[in-house]
Amino acid sequence: MNSFLFNVGLILLCSISVIQFCATAFGYYAQATAAQEIFGHTLQSLRGIKYLYKYNVFQIGFVVLAGLTFLYYIAFGWRRKKPSGRFQLST
After folding, report:
1. What tens digit of pLDDT does each residue of 20-39 get?
2. Engineered SS bond to 30: which of 12, 22, 24, 36, CB 3.0-4.6 Å?
3. What is the rounded distance in angstroms from the CA atom of residue 38 to the CA atom of residue 40?
């Protein structure tokens, strides 16, 4: 259950930056949509958070994390743990 909650939290943290990235990258297609209204006008006029959206902090963080993940998988590859213990299923 703890890993499930951690993964849900990770998805929720990443979803905002992905939606903002897509709304900005495909701004022409997102005209007059709720995403464009939220990320285009509403969030950019908030006092404390508008600078994070003005300087694209979330988008840069998303691209940096994606790049670091890509470099990690290039360097170490996909390691799969071999099942061991009492509850091993036969393959």
Report:
1. 778 778 878 878 888 778 77
2. 36
3. 6
